[in-house]
Structure of Putative solute:sodium symporter small subunit:
Amino acid sequence: MAEKPHNNAYWAANIRLITVCLVIWALASYGFAILLRPLISGIAVGGTDLGFWFAQQGSILVFLVLIFFYAWRMNKIDKEHGVDE
């Protein structure tokens, strides 16, 4: 059974959104908190350096923002493709 072209476009948009969110999350949690920490350690945030802040709080906040962004953007994609509630 062949899939309809609009289904392919819908899933392509969904996968693209998930990929972007995962890259941003990985950059914030793994990149800034671990790999790039020596580069950003001189920047003070809340009495500590920015690398430590990302490791302890920043990656969690980025993750929460991404959850709301994903829900908002997915609702928009659903409406564009006619699969909204």
Notes: The chain has one domain: 5-23+40-80. The longest helix spans residues 5-35. Residues 5-23+40-80 form one domain. The two ends are 26 Å apart (CA to CA).
